[in-house]
Fold this sequence. Notes:
It is built from four helices and eight strands. By secondary structure, the chain is an alpha/beta fold.
Amino acid sequence: MTEITFLGGCREVGRMGILVDSGKERFLLDYGxxxxxxxxxxxxxxxxxxxxxxxxxxxxxxxxxxxYKKGWKGNVYATPTTFELCSLLLRDSLKVQERKGLIxxxxxxxxxxxxxxxxxxxxxxxxxxxxANIEFRT
Length: 138
């Protein structure tokens, strides 16, 4: 039986993270921050097969590099446009965290790892896994 767990983003703007557990594989849909205070969603725990990014806004993407900081080696799936904007926003977020005197949630190395393991996907293309098929739509 498939279980869906909201790790954040309920009754608030930000910290979006949804864990989908098929019983065989575990997937994340988004993993963001609350932009005002850099609040983060609950930890998903490992293993995670893959992450699917709906769009680039930091409330949906801002915490993804922390997964790589913690040793995750999985792929993030999104459209090329989403990845392009996400990269700009995550790099800018690092600068803002430093200017505010915050301890950065991730380092440029973690962001680079995410970018190396990204998987561009087109709208309407089916991505097959052992226990699920995923399709990005508009």
